[in-house]
Design brief:
The relative contact order is 0.07. Among the domains are: about 15-90, 2-Layer Sandwich (Gyrase A, domain 2); about 100-195, Glucose permease domain IIB (Gyrase A, domain 2), CATH 3.30.1360; about 390-560, no CATH class. The chain is α+β, with helices and mostly antiparallel strands. It has a 4-stranded antiparallel sheet with strand order 1-2-4-3. The radius of gyration is 28 Å and the shape is globular. It starts with 12 loop residues before the first helix and ends in a 7-residue tail after the last helix. It has 21 helices and 12 strands.
């Protein structure tokens, strides 16, 4: 009848949830809402503290007709048009990052406080008119935000692998022109700030951001696995657990699987980083660690389409990092630039992953395997040659570069040489210089632990510290020292000096052993009451921890305070 209000169809449960997810960040969060009711097209909320609500942002929502806030009572009238077409209904099913985007905008001082916005590999980069209006504590406590940093006149919100999606959501929610930046007058800027461009194309920063971004999601699990391995080793060494028993072996399988199947896990995180279907990437990762592809004795496998498959010096890709990241990076580029353009839409569902995974896997075995093997053997031959000239220089070189070699999987070429020498002569000195690397990381982590004011950074320190003591340094490297660069460089220098010192003191390895603190026993001759090598190694590594701790503690600054 004339004069009657048009009936608004009821919201579906999923639509109601999506709507509330968008509203909550703009009313101070779920804890600020006392009650919520809906009658027809009107949503009413009773708030504990109405000052936490943002009526202007609420009014900007595409489905909001009117918004009023009075005496702690918020009323939002929905537009009828929002329910009349499927296209408008989809407004309620917004990006899953819209809620995060609204929280970010609100806590950088609102849209009116944003002078410009760009993003790099992992960060949203704001230029704010007044940084004092930003609320760093709330941002850092928000799920989806890793940390907040201030440098070079920029207010940087570190997101991680999903930064491009969050950036798009911030631009959409904040009505920021999709060109990338907002000028002082609110107009779209044509290009990013000059300093942004410089960092974006810095090869070293790009490499570190890629590695850190891919490994960050698994740092916690990696640290947990390292701690389990260390505890098991301690219990077996002290005779509190049978090292050959079923309990030990089963629990060790749990801990070691993290590192054994590392390429599979990294294929998933790399897929998120490079924008490819995760299951497709994991197929490639699984192929690299398939049992029949593994070899500890044979380097050259049967040919693939007539081309020999040459494996890395380690014999397989288990525990490796760089090969799978390179493979998935290529797969993402190849799929976007080539495969999707040539595969018909009618068979794209299986045709795209078929072509992408097959070509990428073959090229990985043809190219990455041989390159890794050549580089690894070259590194091994270099250090073997260097040892003939000066064992002290060898100790410094291995100590300084061993962690870098581990990242690229080239350290594996040194192991067979040392083992052959050990079993043929009863001793070896080739890898003695690698011992301090672990302890340099421990010292750096300890310094960051005490120095940092960032809660998320501090939470990574205890597990990285413990796992580092037992020889598992990946959490320390990829989670703490490498992302901040300077601590990683310091650990390379101190471990290099310590490695030279061990060689100068004549420390010799007489048996195979564990890593970290369990490596000390390797420097005791079998059947000989001579503890001098073990004592020297303990003293040198202790000094390495102290020296690295002191230097990192003095030089380290949280990125936001630089």
């Amino acid at each position: 009848m004339p004069g009657q209000r048009k009936e608004v169809r009821p919201l579906q449960e999923t639509e109601q949830q999506a709507l509330l997810e968008q509203l909550l960040p703009l009313v101070g969060g779920e804890t600020n809402v006392v009650s919520t009711t809906r009658r027809g097209s009107r949503i009413s909320m009773t708030l504990k503290d109405e000052s936490l609500a943002d009526p202007a942002a609420l009014a900007a929502l595409p489905f909001a007709a009117t918004v009023s806030l009075r005496n702690g009572r918020l009323r939002l009238e929905l537009t009828e048009q929002a329910y009349e077409t499927r296209e408008k209904e989809n407004w309620l099913m917004a990006s899953k990052y819209d809620g995060l985007a609204r929280i970010i905008i609100q806590n950088v001082g609102g849209k009116e406080n944003i002078a410009s916005l760009t993003h790099c590999v992992t960060r949203l980069r704001f230029k704010l008119k007044d940084e004092s209006k930003a609320n760093k504590e709330i941002l850092e406590a928000t799920d989806g935000v890793m940390k907040v940093m201030q440098a070079g006149g920029q207010y940087m919100v570190v997101i991680g692998n999903q930064v491009s999606d969050v950036y798009d959501a911030v631009c959409t929610v904040g009505h920021i022109a999709p060109g990338g930046a907002v000028n002082e007058d609110g107009s779209a800027a044509e290009e990013a700030p000059k300093e942004q461009k410089k960092e974006k194309f810095n090869p070293f920063n790009w490499f570190v951001n890629i590695i850190s971004g891919v490994l960050t999601p698994i740092i916690g699990v990696m640290a947990a696995s390292g701690i389990i391995k260390g505890v098991l080793t301690i219990l077996a060494t002290l005779g509190m657990m049978d090292g050959s028993g079923s309990t030990y072996n089963i629990l060790y399988a749990l801990a070691d699987s993290m590192f054994y199947f590392l390429p599979v896990l990294l294929s998933y995180t790399s897929a998120k980083r490079f924008g490819i279907e995760p299951m497709e990437a994991m197929l490639i990762g699984c192929g690299l660690v398939y049992p029949t592809l593994l070899s500890s004795s044979e380097v050259v496998h049967d040919s693939l389409f007539g081309i020999p498959v040459i494996m890395p010096s380690a014999g397989d890709y288990t525990n490796s990092v760089i090969p799978i990241i390179c493979a998935i990076a290529f797969a993402a580029w190849f799929e976007k630039k080539v495969v999707k353009k040539i595969v018909p839409d009618s068979i794209a569902l299986f045709g795209v992953p078929l072509v992408t995974s097959l070509v990428t896997f073959c090229l990985t075995l043809w190219v990455i395997g041989p390159v890794a093997s050549i580089l690894g053997n070259g590194v091994a031959n270099f250090f073997k040659w260097l040892a003939g000239i000066s064992e002290i220089l060898t100790g410094f070189g291995i100590g300084a570069l061993y962690q870098v070699l581990v990242m690229f999987g080239m350290h594996a070429a040194l192991g067979p040489i040392a083992i052959v020498e050990l079993f043929s002569t009863g001793s070896t000195r080739l890898l003695v210089g690698a011992l301090p690397c672990t302890f340099a990381q421990v010292g750096a982590v300890g310094a960051i632990w005490l120095k940092t004011k960032n809660k998320k950074t501090r939470s990574l320190c205890p597990p990285a510290f413990v796992s580092g003591l037992v020889g598992i340094t990946e959490p320390a490297i990829y989670g703490l020292t490498l992302p901040t660069k300077k601590p990683f460089v310091i650990t390379c220098i101190t471990s290099g000096i310590a490695g030279a010192a061990l060689m100068a003191l004549g420390v010799t390895q007489y048996q195979l052993s564990g890593m970290g603190i369990f490596q000390y026993t390797a420097y005791v001759p079998v059947g000989v009451n001579d503890l001098s090598g073990m004592i020297a190694s303990i003293i040198v590594t202790a000094l390495t921890v102290v020296a690295t701790f002191a230097i990192v503690y003095v030089t380290y600054k949280d990125p936001e305070t630089k």
